[in-house]
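Retro notes
What went well: the complex prediction finally ran end to end.
Inputs used:
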Amino acid sequence: MTDARVQRCLQPGVSILVGTVDPGGVPSCCRAIAIASDDGLETLTVYVPVATSQEAIRNIALTKRLAVAASHPVDHCSTQMKGTTIDTRLARDEEAERVRRGLDAFADVLDAIGVPRRLTRGVAHWPAFAITMRVEEMYDQTPGPQAGTRIR
Amino acid sequence: MSVRLHDIWRCFQGVVPAIIATADRHGTPNVTYLSQVHLVDERHVALSRQFFNKTSRNLDENPVASVEVIDPVTLQAYRLRLKFLRSEKSGALFDTMKLRIDAIASHTGMAGIFRLIAADVFEVVSADFVDGFLAEPPRDEPAGASLDGKRTEIRGLQWVSERINRATDLESLLSSVLAALDEYFGFAHSVVLLHDETRQLLTAIASRGYGPSGIGAEVPLGDGLIGTVAREQRLLRLTSLEADLRYGRAVRRESAGGPALLQAEIPLPGLRDAQSVLAIPLTVGSRLVGVIAAEDRDPMRFSEWDEAYLAVIANQIALGLDRMIERCDENADPPPPTTVAVAAPPPPPLAAKRAARRVTYYTSDDAIFVDDEYLIRNIPARILWKVLGESQRTGRTEFSNREMRLDPSLGLPAVKDNLESRLILLRHRLQEKCPDLQIVPTGRGRFALRAEAPLELVER
């Protein structure tokens, strides 16, 4: 997998999935609205709606373990990053625009494949938690026999 | 807030991919998409396992999972807590899930590469509405068919049965059945393909909503969506065709060996932008008669109810088709006339005024071209070539099914020769490609050749 392909997971319009786990090993999933990294994916921040991420936040507080998968809805090109949470906070007002743009871009992509934009824009996205993770492992997750290949 | 699984059935149609989180024995989570969550019953779901991936390994180590599914109409999310029970590698559930994957694999040229390894069965520990997922609560219409709807369906069943019983020939049976399905069930795009046992393929013999094109299209058994339905003799309902194909193409792209080693993708039989497909095998006992398929641009067009209901109607259609084909086969035609038949009107005087048509039979390809455009091949081509030659040599314009059956050079099978369906196919192809030349039924077991343009016959 090329660096360019890895960088695609930061592009607008990707679908972002978040996986966490509680101390008893019970996993939980939710969807994030936006993703950002300003250090070449050494760390990465995902924005999850407060309304739907209570369980994820609780799990992170207890175990700090986090998995984030970014996938393009059209071609399923996907990357999964795993690591340790280093910061969890309520997203700041100046980040609201980033989150809204994330949802709009995702709505545009889904609209192109048949999910009406108005539906996607109805998904709750704000207020949001910003969860920052130190990326320790990265995997190619595009469906197929190579899915799960470690790339970093 | 907990929910009943059957109340959120739309989430299990695969229109919006679900997500699944698992964790390994060390507590490292993994999250990924699922192509489809299969609803088994009110307390169980099944997930398809196509590859031995991280999710599979995690479940072996730690048999719990969290799945989020989304209603494609409202976009409301629901979360399921699952406990992994077992992997099934055979049986009814496995076969049902396998058919869908085989069909997609075949369609995308990946037969044998993209396949179901196991159906992983889970107990649903809890199923909950995700509060706050939508900024505003979803607006939903009441579920279930209305009484009027049920009455319509019963009337529809009655109507289809009557049409089948009243049909006097194969062509009227096919056209009236497709019309009834359109009128009563809104199946505006449908096609019937008949099974050719000798050549192990299906031939499109009647269609509705596609215009004349498509009649005569051939689908080998096992190829694509319809070919897979025919081979497996199992009904297939795809409610997220585009999403399934995108997923399949992603796998194809990523497959070892590259696309060069894979087979070409088979074009869809009808609508280019079909979102849902319902394909039903037409069988009599264990014998395949054909396939009836309907398509729609609405991904949610075909429900479980349509599936069950159409299976009943398909049985009737299959019996009707089989009866009609047998009747045609056993029909005691009168001996062939030795002179030009009285019943057949003489060729219209226009013939001399129209531009000549060049009809070429390519022996090596067993195919006929009209003015360099492909018309038809195989047995229907040989039938046309026979009657054209006979007409040119003797002036005869009327022929009988019997003389076709008695001519070994045509290669008709000794039993179940499907002659009537081959003549229907020939008629449709001529109407579409060469309206100056027609094969017209003139009575039971008889047909006439009508040429409204001079013909130049060439054999190569």
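What we learned: The CA atoms of residues 11 and 35 of chain A lie 9 Å apart.
What to try next: split runs per interface for comparison.
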